[in-house]
Structure formats: C-alpha cells, structure tokens
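Ticket #4471: complex job returned nothing on first submit. Input attached below:
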Amino acid sequence: MSIASDLIRGHTDTIILGLLAVGDSYGYRINKAIRTATDGEYELKEATLYTAFRRLEDAGCIRSYWGDEESGARRRYYAITDRGREVYRQSLLEWERANRLIDKLIRPFGENGEGK
Amino acid sequence: MSIASDLIRGHTDTIILGLLAVGDSYGYRINKAIRTATDGEYELKEATLYTAFRRLEDAGCIRSYWGDEESGARRRYYAITDRGREVYRQSLLEWERANRLIDKLIRPFGENGEGK
DNA sequence: TTGAGATACCTTGACAGGCGAGGTATCTTG
DNA sequence: CAAGATACCTCGCCTGTCAAGGTATCTCAA
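Support reply: We reran it on our side without changes. The output follows.
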C-alpha cells in the first residue's frame, strides 16, 4: 500500500522544486523520477502534478516553455526561478522544523507507542 | 511564525490518539498540552480539534463521556479504544515510512538544498 | 456588582490541495 | 492496425483546516 497522501500534502511543491533545482524537466519525467526514487512507494497523480505546476508558476517559482522536439509528443519544460530556489530553501528548513515538532507531538511517551 | 498546517495535516488524529493513550482527557486540556509541548510553536485550532474528535469517534477509535464536575464548565472526556490503539500504532509506522520517503524526495542532491 | 478573562463546549461555511475520471495527440512495435 | 508508451490537460468531488461566530460557567479585581 502506498503512503497516505495527507502525509505528503504540503510537500508536493517542495519535491518538484527540488527536482527542478537539478535541472529543467517536464511533467512526465518528473513523475517517473519520483516513482523511481521511491521504488514505486509513492507517485504523484497527474492531476496533482499539473495543479502544482500551475500553482508554482502563478507564484513565480517556476517558468515554462515548450520543448522543440523533432519527433514524439510535445513537452512543456519547467525551469526553477530565483524565487523558486529561495522558496525551496525555506521549505527545507520548515520541513526540518516540522519534522522535529511532529516527532515530539506524536509520541507523548518519548520512546515508542507502548504506553502501558 | 508557526508551522504550515499542511505539514502537520494528517497527523492531527495521531497526535490526539497519542495523548489519549496516556490517559483520558478532554478537548481544552489536549489543546493546551499541544501548545505547551511545542512551546507555542504549534496549536490545533478548536474547530480542527472538535472535527477530529467527531471523526475519531465515528471511526471507533475513541469513546466520549461527560465528566461529573461539581463546579466549573462541563467537560467531555475522551478515551482511546482498542481499535484506537491499533490505529495509533499503525500511524506511527506510517509516519516513519513517510518520513524517510519525504526526506528522500525532498533532496534530490542527497546532502542539503545547495544544488550548485 | 460588574466586567474581563479564563475555562469549556460547539457549529457553520469557505477554502485549498489531492485525485478519480475523463479527454487529446503522437510515436513505436508486434 | 491495435496496443501501449509517451505526453499533455481539465472538471468536479472529497476531505481536512480554520476563521468566525455562538453558548455557559467560574474567578477575581476594581
């Protein structure tokens, strides 16, 4: 079974920005990269992915342009912007903070789930 | 500034179950416990809290009963059920898995956010 | 005594992100 | 020529969060 999407929610944008920070890419490839990176444990649904692109572009975090493929289906490439890099950095920090916080909140016993 | 709630989303139920695993409690106190535990960095909004109680009770993870306060405002106490404990255990495991997954996805470089 | 502030509960309606379901078009390969 | 991969996209529902509003009790100071 795959991971509950509510646990990933809020990370979608960061994941995409992280991948684009390595280099320009396009939707289909980003999606595959995620599936591959997690050995199929997680995948972004297409609808989610394209919603995120829209959102990130509106926010000025990414730019897009059509690739000039000679053959094959057309691809819309995305590039991260300076603002995108900044947002990405911030998100990493936030994630670390949230991570510590959640870990603290989730285990009132300190150790594991065994209360008694 | 407090943590983005999208990062905590999906953990609300687990946090509540974790607290109830220690012992019965009621809404107001649970809320304060969370604020205190995080030094005010995070707090559950009341609406969110009561929605969660409803959800958890419908799912059979908690039971509720009215306290018999002699004075002061009436309190509705919540108790975790066996099913609740089981769900809690599972959630802890899921969180660990998700944690690893997100950490992997969020940093395509392996180290930190610095791509170049 | 009256008013503020803490304790304690609750509901309504809006919003945002995820995603199931559906659609388009191209290329490759059997 | 059909199937499957590549590649894009939209519509509408669902779910969790939360701002805003409400109720009632108790305490304590002015």
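DSSP finds five helices and three strands in chain B. Closing as resolved unless it happens again.
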